[in-house]
Amino acid sequence: MDYSVTLSKVGGYQPFIQEMVNNGLWAKLCRKYDIPKHIWLPLLGYTELWAEHVYRYKNDTANHKNEATRIFLSTMYDYIKSIFVKNNSYFSIPVDKSTIYAQDDIQPQEIKENVFSSYWVGHATQIYTIPVRYNSEIRNFTILTDPVQGSLSFLYPRFTNEGAQVQDYPEINALIYSHNHRDHFDPETLRLLCESQLKLYNNSPIIFVPKGLGAMLNAMNFKNVFEMMPGDVAILGDFMKIASVDSRHWSGRCIHDSHTTAFHSVVIQSNAMNGCIYFAGDTALLSNEELDAITKCFDIAYSMQPGGPDDNRVDMESTHQSSADGLLMHVRFIKARTQDGTSYSFGELSELVKTLYMHTKTFKLGPLHFNDTDQSIHRVLNALQAIHSNSIDENDLAKDILSVLRPHEQVVVEEILAIASTITFRKDDGEVVHGIPAHDIVELLTHSVRIPKIGERTDLGEGIHELEMNLQPYSGGDDLLAC
C-alpha cells in the first residue's frame, strides 16, 4: 500500500502528561559542555546520557527509582528463596505446560471487514491484523506492539517461550512502542526485525515511539521513526489513525535516565472497523478524568489490558495496573459505550467491548508466578458470583467472600458493582432494567474477556461471541465457589 503519514492533534483531547525542562545537575553540566545525548557503551549498547526534558503524568510525585530498587531487591530475594523453597518458583502452582501455548498460524488469516485478530507473542508483544478499506478494497494492515525477544538479562530471564520468533513474523506495516523500559523496548529485537522484514518482504515498517526515544533510534540508524506525545495522532493515508493517549507510568533504562522519555497508551482507528482498539501498554489504573478524556474522543470497542504485576502493590500501584484492574477497565469502557442513549439488550452489552490480557506469564518482577492473573480473576469472579445484591454493606455473604480478596481486588469488586448499578439494559421481553445484577456481571465478563494462550490468534469483532476466560485451574486454597 502506498500512503503518507501525517502527524496532527486529536481534536478535543486534553493531555495530562507533563513535559518539563530537565534542570538536574547532570543535565546542566552536559548542556554546558555540549556532551552528546547518546553514545555507545560496552554491555549497555546505545545509551542515553542525558535529555533536554523530563516527563511525568499529572500529580505524579512518587519516587519511581526507589520503587524500582525495592522491586528489584524483592525479585532477587525471591529468586534466592526459590532455590530452597519449592513452592516459591515461578511455576510453584502445578501447571500443565501443554496448556500454556497455542500453535496458531502467525500469518494473517482471511480478511474480514469489522473483524481484526490479535496474535499474542508473549508479554506486551502482540501482532494485530486489522482490516482497512484501501482504494475501495479491504486489505490487511499489520501492527506490532512492544517487540522484545528473549530474556531481559541473566537477572530477568524469560520464563515462557515466545509464540513465534521475529524471523517468522508476517509482514509488519507499523510498530508501536509504549515506552522504553527493557521489557517493552529492545534495540536488538528491533534490529533483527528490521533485517528480517527487509530480507523477506523488502519492507521497512513505520515505527511510532514516545517523544524522546526517536533520537536514540535515529542515532542507531533506524528509519521511518515518528515521535508522539499524548494528544498526537498519526494519520495514515485515508484509512487509519494511530493516536497517542495518556498512561500513568514512567520511563528509564539505567540509573541516570529516569523520566527522560515520554510514555503513552495508543488508540488505533480503522475505516473498516466499528470501534477503536486500545493498547494500554504499561499503566497504572487511569483516573476518571483521564479515562473520560479518552472515551470522549474515541469509541473503544477492543481493549488490550496488562495483567499485573499483582504483588508488591504498594510499589506497583503508581505505575502498574493489577490484573483485577483490567476487569474494571472493561466495565468502565462498557459504561462509556452506553452513554449514546441506545437501549441495549444484555447480549448486545456483552458484545460492546472485547478485552484481551497481555503483560503477564512471561517475566518475574517481584514475587510473581505464572498463574497470578488467573488466580486474581478467579477470586474477583467468585466474589461477584456469590453476591446476590449490588449493596455490599447489606450482604453478609458478600462480606465473607470479600474477606478472602486482596485489598486491591476488594476495591475492584466494589467499583465494578458501583458502575454496573448505573448501566441500563433491555431484557428479552422488552423490560428495561436499571443496573446489572452481580451474577450477570460475571456472565458478561466471562463471555467478553480472555486471557489468551501464548501463540494464540484471537479474532475480535462483530459477530465474535463468547471469548471465554481460558483461566488456568484455581488452586489458591480459599473456600470459594467454583468458576
UniProtKB/TrEMBL annotation:
Pfam family, one: Lactamase_B_2
PANTHER family named among the record's database cross-references: N-ACYL-PHOSPHATIDYLETHANOLAMINE-HYDROLYZING PHOSPHOLIPASE D
UniProt protein name: MBL fold metallo-hydrolase
InterPro entries referenced in this protein's UniProt entry, alphabetically: Metallo-B-lactamas, RibonucZ/Hydroxyglut_hydro
Domain (Metallo-beta-lactamase): residue spans on this chain: 142-301
Species lineage: Bacteria, Pseudomonadati, Pseudomonadota, Alphaproteobacteria, Rickettsiales
Annotated source species: Candidatus Cyrtobacter comes
